[in-house]
Design goal:
Pfam families: Stress-antifung. There is one protein chain. This protein is α+β, with helices and mostly antiparallel strands. The protein contains 13 helices and 12 strands. The protein has 3 domains: 110 residues, Killer Toxin P4, Chain A; 113 residues, Gnk2 domain, C-X8-C-X2-C motif (Killer Toxin P4, Chain A), CATH 3.30.430.20; 167 residues, no CATH class. Helix 4 packs parallel to helix 11 and helix 6 crosses helix 10. The longest helix has 22 residues. The two termini are 59 Å apart.
Length: 465
């Protein structure tokens, strides 16, 4: 007897553990809207409404359909109805969702109205007294944002935007306009679904999902959100599973955007790359671009005496006082690094040039919108994509922001490098120690403590997170 009780308890626990995935019609009510217009012949309308609902329920239960339409046009009060449930629901759950929606939508019959729609997580139901099957865009797009915020907001936001973009691209190309994905980011799995009514076209479905993609931006970084379109378009994402892992859609064949094969492809390294290694990769990319740019400027030929090794063997180099005064801007506090054993230490470039390192030059070109100046002028413009160059520069600069909390993790960097339009939503903020050098100030004097702070910051900020 004890063993039987234990088995029953285990069975109950197993059923509970699958709640939200199996045996759940997902009856979380999202919206219930009633038309403002009433009908004239109540009995005629109810007969047509009941007939339409009965026909659609039969399509679900008897034929296993997830999408159904019906119409009953007897008399003066015709009824057109549409029902659709999520493809990951079982037939029983789909029917249960229909029954709940049919009961809920009848609340609009007091007084009786000529149209209504109900949307649950698992299904939607709509009826009108006119043929609306061709509708694919209606006013009233809305979102339902969750109340929990992601721990790593930057990585989460980047991942969600890529998920939504992929669903927007793939779903309209899939038969039935339905797609589900599961995306693993570190130890978190994100489940997502996109659906359009089967009366949509590929273009109208894409447009509807695009609107929902934009609307959901306002929910980030909430971990569970939905977008609803009254015409029959739906998008949802959540860290909590709401369908089984074996019910995901392989959308990869539908993500090919095309494009010229002559363009260069950026190779992305993924897997267990640490933040430091990833930062080095980005810096190397920028260094390569910048070195090409510097070579195109045809610098003066360096004499053999300046080569590494020979320089170290030469006697101490002597400089004229006037040259040192000019190079340090009259021994300005802005160029002072600190005090050493042999006196005050100033920062001055050996070759007298104004640009002292790549990062400041990259920020300057980014600030001016002249990022292509980092590319070797001898390269054929047709051999690279200007947008790809800008994307890599933007991502690299995101990794040099002052606060480590706002720098993207390497998992987010991989997503950004693979994406087409996500970087545009993330504007890097210039570190203060660089910004102060690029923007004019009314007070040109700077204290020693300020200069030393800048110097210290520049050493600690360059590595990526």
């Amino acid at each position: 007897m004890v063993k039987v009780k234990v088995l029953v308890a285990i069975t109950i626990l197993m059923v509970w553990s699958f709640e939200g995935v199996i045996g759940d019609p997902q009856l979380n009510l999202l919206t219930n809207e009633c038309s403002a217009e009433t009908i004239n012949d109540l009995s005629n309308f109810n007969r047509n409404l009941n007939a339409s609902f009965a026909e659609m329920r039969a399509q679900v239960t008897d034929h296993g359909k997830y999408f159904a339409t019906a119409q009953s046009t007897t008399g003066t009060e015709p009824v057109y109805a549409m029902f659709q449930c999520m493809n990951y629901l079982s037939t029983a759950d789909c029917a249960a969702c229909f029954d709940a929606a049919a009961a809920e939508i009848r609340h609009c019959t007091t007084p009786i109205t000529n149209g209504a729609r109900v949307v649950y997580d698992g299904c939607f139901l709509r009826y009108e007294n006119n043929d609306f099957f061709g509708d694919n865009s209606l006013p009233g797009n809305s979102v339902r944002c969750g109340n929990q915020t992601a721990v790593d907001a930057i990585t989460f936001n980047t991942t969600i935007q890529q998920i939504l973009q992929n669903l927007q691209t793939a779903t309209p190309k899939i038969k039935g306009f339905f797609a589900t994905t599961k995306t693993q980011v570190a130890d978190i799995a994100i489940y997502a679904v996109a659906q359009c009514a089967e009366t949509f076209t590929q273009d109208t479905c894409s447009n509807c999902l695009s609107i929902q993609h934009n609307n959901l931006q306002g929910c980030l970084p909430n971990t569970n959100s939905r977008a609803i379109d009254p015409a029959g378009c739906f998008t949802r994402y959540s860290e909590t599973p709401f369908f089984a892992d074996n019910q995901t859609t392989d959308i990869s064949p539908f993500l090919n955007q095309g494009g010229s094969s002559s363009k260069k492809k950026w190779v992305v390294l993924s897997g267990g790359i640490g933040g430091v290694v990833g930062g080095v990769i980005l810096v190397v990319i920028l260094l390569s671009l910048f070195s090409c740019h510097k070579r195109s400027q045809s610098p003066k030929r360096v004499t053999k005496g300046y080569m590494l090794g020979e320089t170290e063997l030469k006697a101490p180099t002597r400089y004229k006082y006037g040259d040192l005064k000019a190079a340090t801007k009259n021994f300005s506090e802005n160029n002072k690094l600190g005090e050493g054993g042999f006196g005050t230490v100033y920062k001055v470039l050996y070759d007298g040039s104004e640009e002292d390192y790549l990062l400041r030059q990259a920020w300057k070109l980014h600030d001016r919108g002249n990022f292509l100046e980092l590319v070797d002028k001898t390269l054929n413009p047709n051999s690279y994509d200007a947008n790809e160059v800008k994307k890599v520069l933007d991502i690299a600069l995101l990794c040099t922001q002052a606060s480590p909390a706002v720098r993207p993790a390497m998992s987010a960097v991989v997503v950004l490098l693979n994406s087409n339009n996500l970087v545009g939503h993330m504007r890097p903020s210039m570190p203060i120690f660089i910004e102060s050098k690029l923007k004019p100030h009314k007070d040109i004097s700077a204290s020693t403590s300020s200069s030393m702070t800048n110097a210290t910051t520049s050493n600690s900020i360059v590595p990526a997170r």
